[in-house]
């Protein structure tokens, strides 16, 4: 059992590292290239969620006396997933950024990113 869990852990680590790198590259891309990257990231985030679900199923199969270590690791992975999702706005928010940035004001991306992320955060509050 633990070998399955550890295999999922390795897959999760590789996937989240790739997602983190891709999220960092999004601001440097334009147009269709940016849209494609966003779509790829969204797909990878879904894959990461599925890996977490598989790991949770594996943890449930562990005898209660041995479950603590795995449960602790799961909490850490869920926090990491939450951070990735917080760092990556919903598709609609990125679309607004594309439109604004598409007008040749790429040099303002960092400020625009903050506006887009704030709009995303406000949406989560409501």
UniProtKB/TrEMBL annotation:
Annotated GO CC locations: cytoplasm; endomembrane system; organelle membrane
UniProt topology in membrane: Single-pass type IV membrane protein
One Pfam family per UniProt: V-SNARE
Keywords for the protein's UniProt record, in alphabetical order: Coiled coil, Membrane, Protein transport, Transmembrane, Transmembrane helix, Transport
Entry-linked SUPFAM superfamilies: t-snare proteins
Protein localization: Endomembrane system
Residue ranges occupied by any Vesicle transport v-SNARE N-terminal domain in the UniProt entry: 1-88
A GO BP entry: vesicle-mediated transport
Domain of life: Eukaryota
Coiled coil (residue ranges): 31-61
Protein family membership: Belongs to the VTI1 family.
Listed name of the protein: Vesicle transport through interaction with t-SNAREs 1A
């Amino acid at each position: 059992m633990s070998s399955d869990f550890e295999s999922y852990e390795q897959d999760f680590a590789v996937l989240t590292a790739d997602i983190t790198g891709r999220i960092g590259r999004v601001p440097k891309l334009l147009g269709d290239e940016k849209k494609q990257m966003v779509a790829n990231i969204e797909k990878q985030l879904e894959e990461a969620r599925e890996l977490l679900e598989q790991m949770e199923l594996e943890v449930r199969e562990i005898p209660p006396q041995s479950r603590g270590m795995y449960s602790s690791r799961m909490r850490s992975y869920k926090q990491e997933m939450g951070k990735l999702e917080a760092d990556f706005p919903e598709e609609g928010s990125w679309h607004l950024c594309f439109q604004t940035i598409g007008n040749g004001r790429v040099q303002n991306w960092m400020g625009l990113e903050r506006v887009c992320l704030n709009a995303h955060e406000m949406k989560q509050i409501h």
